[in-house]
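Why does residue order matter? Because the sequence determines the fold. Keep that principle in mind as you read this record.
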Amino acid sequence: MSKKFTVLLVLGALVIAACGDAAETTTTAGGEACGPEHPALHEQGKLTVATGDVVFPPWMLDDDPAGGEGFENAIVYELAEELGFERDDVVWVRTTFDEALVAGDKPYDFNIQQFSITPDRAQVFDFSDPYYVEEKALVAFPETLPGEVSTLEDIKGLKYGAMIGTTDLDYIENVIGATDVQVFDELADVFLAMEGKQIQATVVGLPTALFATAVQVPDATIAGILPDSEGEDGLGMLFEKGHGFVSCVNEALATLDAAGRLDALATEWLASGGEIPRLTK
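Structure:
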């Protein structure tokens, strides 16, 4: 065997080994390798993720996405690892909820801040598959409720507040049919308005309702879990239309789901509702 041929064999073995290592740290979607070198990424080698200008428990703790403490940022870091990114390769940027829902090019790969997947939004943006299916809950002061409530008609006359651009606001106006509704720029402003007794009630996702009634408006209660709204398919990560990395994220999410990791993170970070009454239409 010649020295030249031996060198070629060694180089070939190194290439095969390198490919084997890459296969262990990346996923493939549609025949294209997913991972830090994917051409669709906003910044090569980085996973750029946007979230709220302020973030709240249990979705993220201490207003610190990079801390990894909370349901949504924990999902992002597990997703990044599945896709072959190092923890330091996850870059966080901040946007308001409203800013994220403006069509056009985005300075990030995806945005995660409890975006419900709806048909109207899906015409303008791409979404990942759902990472959590959220139930909506009514947060209200007990003394403002008209006795025992069991249907949406019972709560129609309350004075509501909700954050602009959210499916919560849409639910209040179009499913409950309330007419006395104040609109706020941020969710924190909604709870401040409740604390100041400017409004009597709001509608939010159940995990948010549990945190709010424990910390932000402890005098309020979760008066009921609300009937599902047609056209909502759970919470998804929001991408600009046509982003080439959506299929990669979906494949990684499917792997995490099959391994039970999404359920485990929900159990760890999102408290269950316990014995909360369910309202009907």
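The longest helix spans residues 3-25.
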